[in-house]
Amino acid sequence: MSKTKTLHELANLLAIALKHKIGSIVNQNEIYAQKYARDYEILLKEAEKIAEQYNWSSEDKSMIKQETRKKLQQELEKKDFLDNKKFEIMDEEMDNALKILGLN
Amino acid sequence: MKFIHQVSKGSRYNQIYIPKDAEGIFEVGDTVEVRLLRKKLELFCSKSPLQLPEFKKSLIKQIFSSLSNFHEISQVFIVGSFLTEKADYNDIDLLVISKQKSELLEKKVFSYLTEKFQLKFHILPVSQESFINLQKICPLTRSMLYYFVSNKKFHPEQEIIIDKKHIEFLLMMPEDLLKINANSRTFYDNIRRLIAIRRFLEKKDLDSAKINQELKELLGEALYSRLKNNEAINNDMLKKLRGIIKKKIIELRKKI
User: Fold this and answer.
1) β partners of residue B45
2) Residue of A nearest to B163 (CA)
3) Number of domains forming the structure of chain A
4) φ, ψ dihedrals at B73, nearest 5°
5) Cβ of A81 under 8 Å from any chain B Cβ?
6) What ipTM, to 2 d.p.?
7) What is the DSSP secondary-structure string of A35-61?
8) Structural class in CATH, domain B44-150
9) Separation between Cα atoms, residue A92 and residue B239, nearest integer Å
């Protein structure tokens, strides 16, 4: 798969993973913070596998961040059953995830 | 003079008898102090029958006894594969009900039990208030409580409430699996989740054995086993799984 295509796939997966993490945080039932943290971890591992396929330049990393943010915003907007606090924490959670993947 | 006795059941009040040889010391009208030295440990099991070997019963008692020191915990349940599988369990799932919402409880309980028993635990903390609500609205919580062992009496909530937002929340992951790749066990867990949601909406019981049986019939023995063991799957299998998920989500959406 080309680098550009891989970048899009990575951003897409990261956005979905983050949606689950954020969903678990804003859900009032704390039991789901546990259950969905697991879903997030599974998806983040998949993202890690994709991220390892290439060496990413600072420019690439900046593009990944931009695209992930845009996709995450869209993903969260679609999920009207998630509390609006989701938008307040999205940047922080995204930065944490990118840091874990060495993409910050 | 002191003595240690068990509390016995009386017709009107529970009582402690004074030993014959101490009658002259403890007389009617004297003032004494009664202190709890050791709580009697009883296991309260789900109505659904469980065949637990002595080893598991004994371990559960030790876990409950250890957790009695956590005063913020009001009730503990052992749930999941530790109860239903003979040896094929990954960890011991504990549903810990706390008097109030607590951010730190899960970490505290996890560290304490792991250190003490050197076993793998999975702690699910939930406050009393959320627990009552979850039993009414959540298929996964109800399914989890189909088989349990608890340190206190427990009667599962009978009332069911269809909370569309909550069901949508549960559908998030299966829906995402239509467009992203994940390991095969994730597909197994999420198709199971869809079956549980459907059974909940149809007000059927949420026995994990019946859910597994349905899953096996749906996937076929070979694919079922492959997913359960998190083995690699090819594109044809993936296509089949996504077809099943898509169909199930459409069915569910019509019911909510």
Assistant:
1) B149
2) A81
3) 1
4) -90, 130
5) yes
6) 0.86
7) HHHHHHHHHHHHHHHHHTTSPPPHHHH
8) alpha beta
9) 35
Q: Encoding tokens for residue B202?
A: 């149809």
A76 to chain B, any CB pair closer than 8 A? The answer is no
Cα of A79 to nearest chain B Cα, Å? 9
pLDDT in tens, B89-144: 889 999 999 988 777 888 999 999 999 999 999 999 899 988 998 999 999 999 99
Domain spans of chain B, in order of start:
44-150, 164-255
Structural domain that includes position A65:
3-100
- The amino acid that residue B139 corresponds to is P
Where do we find the tokens 């971890």?
A41
Class of residue A92 by CB neighbours under 10 A (exposed 0-12, middle 13-18, buried 19+): exposed
Q: How much is the pTM? A: 0.82
Listed residue (B47, B45, B84) closest to B208, CA to CA: B84
Distances (CA, A) of A70 to A94, B23, B172, B201: 11, 82, 19, 35
Closest-approach residue (CA) in chain B for A48: B182
Collect all residues with Cβ–Cβ distance below 8 Å to B76 and sequence separation of at least 6.
Answer: B63, B64, B67, B94, B95, B96, B97, B150, B151
